[in-house]
Specification:
alpha/beta, about 40% helix, globular
Length: about 280
């Protein structure tokens, strides 16, 4: 038998540790979820040459309030869908992002033909089930927060219920763990089918500032999967740049929340990225 390769999880940053602690408290309070609770429609992720995952969030710890209490999440989601977003990411973390699972449920009901992803600092499989119960078709998992065994359990939970996963990396160690994961034939097949995405987040989780060099610097280390450029992308030119480095999606939040025409920005980013991919 081939020996199992394990890559150690590095210590979390102070911010991630705080988020993990609060998330674990929420997971403990989640209660039992029955199979009959998981019957909301599941929307497959359909990917093209270059795609945008458009994010809805009320607040960013780095940038402050992005929207007021009167934020029309369903209207924003419909504009994202109009622009051709491949998926809509909804922040559900309450303490620093003003999120809630009810926001995800609202958005999933408003855009029934577009998959919705739960973005949070998830630490337990029950939180994947919470997302599915609320109507999510995908979840984001942060590699740095999870041991190999816990990551496996959460991936298996998501895949059991047909969800896609965006596996978020911050550094070389995280990407190395993703590559080891993809040595598993089933996960490699899921990556090839676009059900397992690998993201690189440019946010420094100690200072919360964006590292503008990280996406290009880590590009040579990207695994054989559809990879997502996360944080700091604001324009169509940014989308074209990351497409040139080998990313096939962009996750865009703050720029879209502040845009006067988010549908056009999603469309322009998709077009610019796809043109670079085709060049």
């Amino acid at each position: 038998a081939r020996p199992v390769t394990r890559t150690l999880r590095k210590p979390m940053s102070d911010f991630l540790q705080q988020m993990a602690t609060l998330s674990a408290e929420r997971a403990d309070a989640a209660g039992k979820i029955r199979a009959g609770d998981l019957d909301k429609p599941l929307v497959p992720l359909r990917l093209g040459g270059f795609d945008v995952i458009a994010e809805i969030k009320g607040r960013s710890p780095a940038e402050g309030a992005l929207a007021g209490a009167d934020l029309d999440r369903t209207g924003q989601a419909r504009l994202y869908a109009q622009g051709g977003a491949a998926a809509i990411s909804v922040l559900t973390e309450p303490s620093r992002f003003d999120g809630a699972l009810s926001h995800l449920e609202e958005v999933a009901a408003a855009v029934p033909d577009t998959p919705v992803m739960r973005k949070d600092f998830l630490v337990e499989p029950v939180q994947v089930l919470e997302a599915r119960r609320a109507g999510a078709s995908g979840v984001l998992l942060i590699t740095a927060m999870l041991s190999d065994d816990k990551l496996r359990a959460m991936l298996d939970t998501a895949f059991e219920f047909g969800m896609f996963v965006l596996l978020e990396a911050f550094d070389e160690n995280d990407l190395a763990r993703s590559i080891v994961l993809l040595e598993n034939p089933a996960d490699r097949d899921r990556a090839a089918a676009g059900k397992l995405l690998v993201g690189v987040n440019t946010r420094n989780l100690r200072t919360l500032e964006v590292d503008g060099t990280r996406l290009e610097r880590l590009a040579p280390l990207l695994p054989d999967a559809r990879c997502v450029a996360e944080s700091g992308l604001k324009t169509a030119d940014d989308a074209a740049a990351v497409a040139g480095w080998g990313y096939s999606l962009a996750l865009v939040g703050s720029a879209l929340m502040r845009s006067k025409d988010p549908a056009a920005l999603v469309s322009d980013m998709r077009a610019a990225g796809s043109a670079r991919v085709a060049a």
